[in-house]
Write a structure and sequence with these properties.
Length: 493
């Protein structure tokens, strides 16, 4: 199987190849359209020349030439040949015959075009008016009778070549002078009396086009090769750089997780032995020292817990478990047990308010929710000196509910909003957006006063995103802070 860092350059090269191929085909079509237009204009010009020569011939009653025998078939309207004083004989050539002579001469000289006059499909074959039409010519004449003014087509040769011949046909319209030669055929002025079919050899015109297309294709191949190599090299470097950055970040996270585990083990020993020491008979000063030590160890323990959770997100050890039902009250009891005592120590009121329509049982990752909410509540208790900290739980409309239900196996969804409100000092608008950056703090003195490193909000936001929600913080200096975490949960069946 192909690796991901190989698929990206291949995808870019494929898109680049398709783009170049599309551009090349468009240019080839433009070249062929130009050739087609050139042939069409040439056929129109040849048609006009033939018609003008016929009109001139008819205006003068035909052309007399010196020939020993008649060139054109005689008709009842044909005048007798003229005999000159020197004994030479002049025979008349009518317009149709003259056009046929021109066509024969062009073919004999090897010109790349030919033409012929054809009569209407319902007329009897009469060489004085034109040849019998072919199937395509018959269809064209009927189109002219229906109102069409011209028709053309491209045909392949016997070897399957493209556009080997260009066929053009336009109608012959009766002129007042036509009656001099064709009075017996009733070719009325303005009526369609037949047509002129012109065939052009497209090879000559296509020669330049094919040469131009070949040049364009060579240019496109060069562009494709140079551009493709540059794109592939660039994407490959980006992919390698990204993979190196991910591996470096994963190594840092692994180191952080390992260190957190190693540091939490002796801390647990310190906390346990401190509790045992506090159970003994101690003086007031000794008890105060041990309580201070225990509080410091607890803060350090919480700090390592936050760092470990953040590292687990980077190493993808944590996965949302959608199929595990849990009671929301159990989640709130854990939070109440961990934070209510700390709030009471500072003289803060600690309340939890759950809306009546909130489902008592949800399906999701309870541990992830507890960790995310504990970050928000811990910050609220930490930075609030007086007043209260309150957690409100309510139902909110889900975004794109149909798509989300399909993604979660068509289970019924509930989107809950967990809002933490405190009466702390508040935060300025300039700092609100930066607080979600890892290790950022609005005041560096907080890290000394409250033993924090700025991971709480960053961790809560990433956990909320893993649960299909987000974290929104609003605050004003002196007005307290409100942080809302939204998450999606499935309902048990």
């Amino acid at each position: 199987m192909l690796r991901r860092d190989t698929l990206a350059p291949l995808a870019v090269l494929t898109i680049w190849t398709l783009a170049i191929a599309f551009a090349c085909m468009q240019l080839v079509d433009i070249q062929r359209s130009a050739t087609r237009e050139q042939l069409l204009q040439e056929a129109r010009a040849l048609f006009e020349q033939i018609v003008l020569s016929q009109i001139w011939n008819a205006e003068h009653g035909g052309v007399f030439v010196r020939t020993a025998t008649a060139i054109c078939p005689s008709t009842p309207a044909s005048p007798p040949p003229l005999v000159l004083a020197d004994g030479q004989t002049l025979h008349r050539i009518d317009p149709a015959c003259m056009a046929r002579q021109f066509a024969a001469l062009a073919q004999a000289q090897g010109n790349h075009h030919s033409f012929r006059m054809v009569g209407l499909p319902d007329d009897a074959v009469d060489e004085s008016r034109g040849d019998s039409p072919s199937g395509w010519e018959t269809e064209s004449l009927r189109m002219f009778l229906a109102g069409a003014t011209e028709r053309w087509t491209e045909a392949a040769d016997a070897d399957g070549g493209m556009n080997a011949t260009f066929q053009y046909m336009a109608p012959l319209v009766g002129q007042p002078s036509c009656g001099r030669c064709h009075a017996e055929h009733r070719c009325e002025p303005g009526a369609i009396c037949g047509g002129i079919a012109i065939t052009l050899a497209a090879d000559a015109a296509q020669g330049g086009t094919l040469a131009a297309i070949a040049g364009v294709q060579r240019w496109f191949v060069a562009v494709w090769a140079v551009g493709g190599a540059g794109l592939v090299a660039g994407v490959w470097l980006l992919v390698r750089s990204r993979r190196a950055a991910l591996e470096a970040g994963r190594a840092k996270s692994d180191f952080l997780a390992a260190m957190s585990h190693e540091l939490r083990t002796p801390l647990n020993g310190i906390l346990g032995l401190t509790d045992l020491a506090l159970a003994e008979a101690l003086s007031d000063q000794q008890r105060e020292y041990l309580l201070t030590s225990r509080q410091s160890a607890e803060r350090l323990h919480r700090l390592f817990t936050f760092m470990l959770e953040y590292a687990r997100l980077d190493t993808r050890e944590r996965k949302t478990r959608l199929g595990e039902p849990f009671a929301l009250d159990d989640c709130l009891q854990v939070l109440r047990h961990d934070l209510k005592a700390r709030a009471l120590e500072k003289g803060l009121a600690f309340r939890m308010v759950v809306a009546p329509d909130v489902p008592p049982v949800l399906t999701g990752d309870m541990n992830m929710l507890v960790v995310a909410l504990s970050q928000l509540l811990d910050n609220a208790v930490k930075f609030t000196e007086s007043g209260a900290v309150e957690l409100r739980v309510a139902v909110r409309p889900c975004r794109f509910p149909l798509l989300q239900r399909l993604a979660k196996g068509n289970q019924a969804l509930r989107c809950l909003a967990f809002t933490v409100v405190d009466t702390g000092p508040g935060i300025s608008k300039e700092l609100v957006g930066k607080l979600f950056e890892p290790f950022f703090q609005g005041d560096a003195s907080f890290s000394r006063r409250h033993a924090g490193v700025g991971l709480g909000l960053a961790l809560a936001r990433r956990l909320a995103q893993a649960m299909g929600g987000k974290v929104v913080l609003t605050s004003e200096p002196g007005q307290g802070t409100t942080v809302q975490l939204t998450a999606q949960f499935a309902l048990p069946e």
